[in-house]
Design goal:
Layout: H1 24-39, E1 43-46, E2 52-56, E3 65-71, H2 84-99, E4 108-113, H3 126-132, H4 137-142, H5 151-157, H6 169-172, E5 175-183, H7 188-192, E6 196-202, E7 205-213, E8 217-218, H8 231-248, E9 251-260, E10 266-267, E11 270-278, H9 282-295, E12 299-306, E13 309-310, H10 313-324, E14 331-334, H11 339-345, E15 350-355, H12 371-388
Parallel strand pairs: 3-4, 3-5, 5-15, 6-14
Antiparallel strand pairs: 1-2, 2-4, 6-13, 6-15, 7-11, 7-12, 8-10, 9-11
Bound molecules: glyoxylic acid (GLV) and manganese (II) ion (MN) (3 copies).
GO molecular function: hydrolase activity, acting on carbon-nitrogen (but not peptide) bonds, in linear amidines; metal ion binding
Binding site for allantoate: 207, 265, 278
Binding site for Zn(2+) 2: 82, 117, 363
């Protein structure tokens, strides 16, 4: 089922995917979703924040549905599974339920959330944050991409009404329970020798932008003593982030840097660096960022923060039993963020199913899942949905 998507946004040089929200690749993926929903006779809806819904049955606030799905956008140079596996598995699980002759007592929905990765505008889980009111729409709409286009600009260009974005209680009221299937982004299931696991918690995590300002000048004619080169404090900050992360027992990453103006023969005037920090203990993550902010000669701005998510224990255990077959599926904590975590934070009963990834690598073209494990994931998801929509 991933095959028809294999060419969309693929960089032939690396095999990686570039599927920024609202890009032509994303619009093509949305068309694919609409086609899959229509082919199954599902009622297709796009909400005010660009999230897509395909409904089997007619949900209402008095009869909210059991919803499953994930996202179709990607990190830059990402793999084929992070996101799309959850969406195709949602359709496949629905097919399986129909093949079993199930008549669900409540509507079943397939969801595709917009801009989960935040690759373009910097804030992850944009669609679910807007839907739940966890992100101010004015702020979201004014976020800029690398070309200086705002979210409002690109939504308008895609024929959407950006000023309708924001908390959407009508759509939220249709979601009784949300289950997201996702490729595992680590090696716990390989170690456990199990194809499928269940999420226990998502680590608290955030993104911060560090702006190091200096003075642009000529690379050949400016004496070393006369330079104000922001690349130096930036380099110190990267090393300090690594040391402080080890000291505080968390992880910290600088994965994106913008150097302005970006000439090989000029001292830069500005270096902007994005810090991603995560860990099991929120205080330790906060302490790392505070220490780094105090040390770095930079203007620091928090771009996003996601508190710890402890998935509902009763739902989690029920899922682990249903998904695991004879032995309950292992329950895993993860350092990766997901729309299911945002919905859980907003009070929607939510849970996640993970599918083994033999490489353990993610946010990279090396991400992988075996066909047999994907099928085990779909079967587990179908069993969970069948149990939840009785
Ligand atoms: C999204 O996948 C994230 O956790 O960064
Ligand atoms: Mn991801
Ligand atoms: Mn994902
Ligand atoms: Mn994610």
């Amino acid at each position: 089922m991933l095959e028809p998507l294999a060419h969309v946004g693929r960089d032939p040089a690396t095999g990686g995917y570039v599927r920024d929200a609202w890009s032509s690749a994303d619009l093509e993926l949305r068309e694919w979703f609409a086609g899959e929903a229509r082919r199954r006779g599902l009622a297709l809806r796009e909400d005010r924040n660009g999230n897509l819904w395909g409904w089997w049955g007619d949900p209402s606030p008095r009869r909210p549905g059991v919803v499953t799905g994930s996202h179709l956008d990607s990190v830059r140079q990402g793999g084929a599974y992070d996101g799309p596996l959850g969406v195709v598995s949602a359709f496949a699980a629905l097919d399986l339920l129909r093949a079993r002759g199930l008549t669900p007592a409540v509507p079943v929905g397939v969801a595709c959330f917009t801009d989960e990765e935040g690759a373009r505008f910097g804030v992850p889980c944009m669609g679910s944050r807007l839907l739940t009111g966890l992100l101010d729409p004015e702020r979201a709409l004014s976020l800029k991409d690398d070309d200086g286009d705002t979210l409002a600009d690109v939504m308008t260009r895609a024929g959407r009404e950006p000023h309708a974005a924001g908390r959407d209680d009508e759509t939220l009221a249709m979601i009784g329970t949300f289950v997201e299937l996702h490729v595992e982004q680590g090696r716990a299931l390989v170690t456990e020798g199990r194809p499928v696991g269940v999420a226990g918690a998502i680590w608290p995590h955030g993104r911060w932008r560090f702006d190091f300002r200096g003075r642009a000048d000529h690379a050949g004619t400016t004496r070393l003593a006369d330079r104000d080169d922001p690349m130096l404090p930036f380099a110190r900050m990267v090393l300090a982030a690594r040391e402080l992360a080890a000291r505080h027992g968390v992880v910290a990453t600088v994965g994106k840097v913008r150097v302005s103006p970006g000439n090989a023969n000029a001292i830069p005037g500005l270096v902007s660096a994005w810090l991603d920090a995560r860990g099991a203990d929120e205080r330790a993550v906060r302490a790392l960022v505070a220490d780094l902010t105090a040390e770095a000669a930079a203007d620091v701005r928090e771009e996003s923060w996601t508190p710890v998510v402890d998935f509902d224990a009763a739902l989690r255990d029920r899922l682990a039993r249903t998904a695991g077959g004879d032995t309950p599926a292992p329950i895993l904590a993860t350092g990766a963020g997901h729309d299911a975590g945002i919905l859980a934070t907003a009070g929607v009963p939510s849970a996640m199913v993970f599918v083994r990834n033999p490489t353990g690598v993610s946010h990279s073209p090396d991400e992988y899942a075996e066909q047999a494990d994907c099928e085990a994931g779909v079967e587990a998801l179908a069993n969970v949905l069948e149990d939840l929509c009785r």
